[in-house]
Design a protein that fits this description.
Gyrase A, domain 2, eight-stranded mixed sheet, 22 strands, alpha+beta, OB fold (Dihydrolipoamide Acetyltransferase, E2P), globular, about 600 residues, BirA Bifunctional Protein, domain 2, single chain, five-stranded mixed barrel
Length: about 600
Amino acid sequence: METMKRTATCGELRADRAGQTVVLNGWVHRKRDHGGITFINLRDRYGVTQVVVDTKTSAVTAPDVTAPDLDAVAAELRNEYCIAVEGIVRLRPEEMANPSMPTGAVEALATKIVILNRSEPLPFQIDETINAGEDLRLTYRYLDMRSEHMQRRIKLRSDVTFAAREFMISQGFYEIETPTFIKPTPEGARDYLVPSRLYAGKFYALPQSPQLYKQLLMAGGFDKYFQIARCYRDEDSRGDRQPEFTQIDIEMSFVSRDDILSITERLMGHIFMKTLAIALPERFKRLTWEEAQEKYGGDKPDLRFGMELRDFAPYVEAGGFQAFKDALAKGGGVKALVARGGADYSRKRIEELEAHAKIYKAKGMAWMKVAGNAGRGATLEGGVAKFFTANAGDIITGLDAAAGDLILVVADEKRNIANTALGAVRAKLGKDLRLADPRAFEFVWIVDFPLFEFNEETNRWEAAHHLFSHPQEQYHDILERDPGAVRGDLYDLVLNGCELASGSIRVHNPELQKRIFSIAGIPPEEAERKFGFLTNAFKYGAPPHGGIAPGLDRLVMLMAGETSIKEVIAFPKNSFAASPMDDCPCEVEQKQLDELHVIVRAP
């Protein structure tokens, strides 16, 4: 085998190598037998090279070639056999060259083939894995990863990770690891718990994020920290969520919000230029949380297309639709959305959009179609149009609607429901109509979030992001009096309608931290028990600090044009947080449970 050690990859041979003898190692991607001449597409992660088995020609070129042996080996080959090929590089005839392959101008005339390992019949063809079911792909993930699209995505992930490290180190950041076994703390999702063998009845938790430890690093004087951090959350899976995921975790001392936003913008600019050769704007757009809610119906707007939500309240009084008037009378909102060219939508399609709005707690969705001529000559028809005959012209002009458009309206006594439900319809229309340019990358900062959210189920205030976010200075005096009005030094980075990063300036004052714990209903003794190791550090001159944590999986997913982070993770879990490849999670032996002092109770 030593004489068959690879001397070239399957992606590097070009015309200037003609006449050289090379050794290629890889997998049989395709084999075609043309009556005495066999063509093999040999593949590795670098590319594909055509290998020709033509014993008559080989015997002339290399007299020691034994025709029956070479033919017999070639005849045995099947897809995904792992082989080594010794051959002579030669130019393909001009009419046989393949311009779609980087190596398409040459081929390797085989003089020797060694089978390194045989392959059983495949559960799916390697270049058709994208059409296989999720569980089948994950069961045979090692085969799935041989496909060109998976190889390309995993390479992109590697490149993005390297670019992130390269930039952060260049800016004076230290990469510092934080613990994987930590104290259980509430961070919005369930912890994964690890029982201790040495301390019966006690548990470690896997970190949902390095949040507390990176703040302790700031207290320790490391003013620029980052980490490619593994995080764990026991929550339901979806396209952009996994039980284990990766963040580009960042924290800085002596900074303001703008400092954090600036370093993140430059990080993204470096990553995109380095890996995709795409130049991003030096500064990303910014929207306040309230602006995002009012214009797009949520705090994760896709700015690749317009279709902003409009306030329909100015047209309600002159109309005769009582449901709209009732919503406003109760302090709610009435919001409208203009679907360009939607006047030809069938009643069934409009009902489907209404059903989608109802998923987001809307009681219903009204509609009107714009008919007639452009401008003041246009009229409203269908749906609730009969209630707005008197001010139809004002509505059409005020909403910038035109003949052929469809106007959708949601009203609710809670303005946020009207916004959220119609925002969901906007997102659905954007997807269904393919309004977003798939090649575009539209970043936007969402800032000035509420610091607290009221949970009606628990009847108490909760931190909107986490308990350690700093309230903006102008709200310190009203913290306890009006928590709902308080805005935090919070910020999210959104890319193409997906939350990419979340961060905040942190609390570093122990007294202020106690006030926030109190508003969130955490008694002092509970706060001390859960967070005392952090808040005690605040007593010893902890500096002002803040940070952010872009999701690496989501970033690579969006850069690759995918909709699920499973496509950019080497070994992800399926939609049920399980791995069919290695049967994880699984039962363990009773001996292991006994050592951990754990009793399993059947559900």
